[in-house]
């Protein structure tokens, strides 16, 4: 029997926090300090005791802090072998954070565009997501740029190159 239809649109391109390729990457591990936990594809900042490798959602980051790039640990990498739950990683779970490389993320309100500065959301339900919106709820994040743009709630591909 001949085929009569073809589906050209895949169900999903990626998952938040999925690495885009197997090229060079630099990552670190940290345990989740935040009681609320964290999902993959979101950025973590240094915790209250950064000497013990703990990370927290960026809810306590001061937006006027000029050293935010040094305080961002990285973007939480998706690990398919972990049991799916919401949020994916609970308090005290050990996560891997991407510091250099390409990764898929969900765009925050305002979306993500190429060739413009990106901002890290540090308040509310979108804490840890990126956006192009520069307001009181966001802070500039150096070393992160968009390779594939996305509207709010859709997948974007970003290049992460955080300072050492």
Compute the CA-based radius of gyration. 16 Å
* Main sheet overview: 5 strands, mixed, barrel
Please give the alpha-carbon distance between the first and last residues. 60 Å
Biggest β-sheet: strands ordered side by side in the sheet: 1-3-2-4-5
Brief write-up:
Helix content is 2%, strand content 32%. The protein is mostly beta strands.
What would your notes on this structure say?
The chain has 164 residues and is mostly beta strands. The strands form two sheets. Strands 1-3-2-4-5 form a five-stranded mixed β-barrel. A hairpin with a 6-residue loop joins strand 9 (144-148) and strand 10. 2% of the residues lie in helices and 32% in strands. It is built from one helix and ten strands, in the order E-E-E-H-E-E-E-E-E-E-E. The model has no long low-confidence stretch (mean pLDDT 83).
Give structural attributes:
10 strands, 1 helix, about 160 residues, mainly beta, five-stranded mixed beta barrel, Virus Head Decoration Protein, Chain: A
Which helices and strands appear, and what pairs or packs with what?
Elements: E1 26-32, E2 43-46, E3 54-56, H1 68-71, E4 72-76, E5 94-106, E6 119-121, E7 130-131, E8 138-140, E9 144-148, E10 155-161
Parallel strand pairs: 1-3
Antiparallel strand pairs: 1-5, 2-3, 2-4, 4-5, 5-10, 6-7, 6-8, 9-10
């Amino acid at each position: 029997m001949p085929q009569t239809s073809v589906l050209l649109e895949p169900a999903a391109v990626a998952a938040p926090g999925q690495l885009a390729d197997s090229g060079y990457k630099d990552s670190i591990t940290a345990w989740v300090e935040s009681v609320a936990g964290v999902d993959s594809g979101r950025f973590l900042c240094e915790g209250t005791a950064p000497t013990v490798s703990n990370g927290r959602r960026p809810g306590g980051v001061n937006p006027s802090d000029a050293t935010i790039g040094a305080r961002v640990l990285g973007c939480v990498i998706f690990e398919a072998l972990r049991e799916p739950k919401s949020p994916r990683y609970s308090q005290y779970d050990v996560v891997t954070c991407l510091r250099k490389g390409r990764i898929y993320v969900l765009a925050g309100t305002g979306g993500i565009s190429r060739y413009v500065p990106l901002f890290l959301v540090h308040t509310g339900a979108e804490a840890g997501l990126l956006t192009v919106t520069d307001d009181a709820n966001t802070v500039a994040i150096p070393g992160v740029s968009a390779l594939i743009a996305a509207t709010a709630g859709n997948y974007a591909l970003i290049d992460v190159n955080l300072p050492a």
